[in-house]
Write the structure tokens for this entry.
Amino acid sequence: MEKSTPDRVCVLVFAKISAAISHEIKNTLSIINENAGLLEDYAQMAEQTGGLPLDRVLSITQTIAKQVDRSNIIMKNLNRYAHSGDTSLAHANLQETLSLVVALASRQAAMQEIHTTVDCPPDIAICTHLISLESLIYLTLLTLYEDCASGSTVTVCGDVEQENIAICFRIEEKNVLPPGRFPDDDQRLLADQVCATYRQEKNLLCLTFPAHQDDRV
Amino acid sequence: MTQTEKHNLTVLIADDEIEFASTLVARLRLRNFQASMTNSGKATLAAIEQERPDVLVLDLKMPDLDGLEVLASLQVKYPSLAVIMLTGHGSFAAGQKGMELGAYDYVMKPVDLNLLMEKIEGAFQSKQTAP
């Protein structure tokens, strides 16, 4: 079997994210397609009856505009994630990074009916292997979603602890993380690259890593 | 199939994208189908129990139970129900998996309505002529 590397894991995560996002885009396109079709139906009916149901036409155009906005947000998030790999080390804002990854995993959360919130001060700067960190958070969220009951909330908290960053994933009391669940092999490879360590408790999982990594690490 | 026959054909659209499902229902109704919708796997099973539609158009990816789980459950309880899978996958594999589990056919998103109507009618007729 081919030996895995952090880069390979990042490619696999990128593939997972691309698959989820292409589904989302297909969904928005499907809604736009059906509404364009319904508009055409009304236009054909108007040819026969001489009148257009203007309230329905307005509702259709609003739906189409909403789906265009939705698609735009999805693509902006994918674009931001893709550019995280532009340089080996990158500066980023922790709150924005957490919000981005939560948004990228939103389809999987929705499929499991899990609500995810981010609780992080807005002014924490990090310098790290950004795409590896984002991929690590993404894989961690997917594993947590598998372990949480439908209807649960996952809270992702970010904070500074001296020179380190702590990202904690808090799950509700009704869910219990199986002992030794984290990290799996892929998570371990990425965690090593960003010098992160996991600490797992019953309803809490924390990732701690240096706020500012340099190339010598 | 005549307009009168279509008028009596009941179609359930199961898809968690509410705006997609509701618009598809509206367009099918304009074409004389009796269409309704559900937005989750469990709601779909409940609606089938209550409404007994002729044809189910079933999305592959839904919260709670996904389309293949719903399909597997239906094959046991309602083997005469005609099912068409809806898939947002880029490949045919997911749709073919549904056919292996007993679906009549599949359509890919975004949907070509004329093609979907052909498949709805074909699915219904295949169940009518089945031994």
Notes: Chain A has two domains: 6-83, 90-210. Chain A touches chain B through 22 residues (CB under 8 Å). The mean pLDDT of chain A is 93.
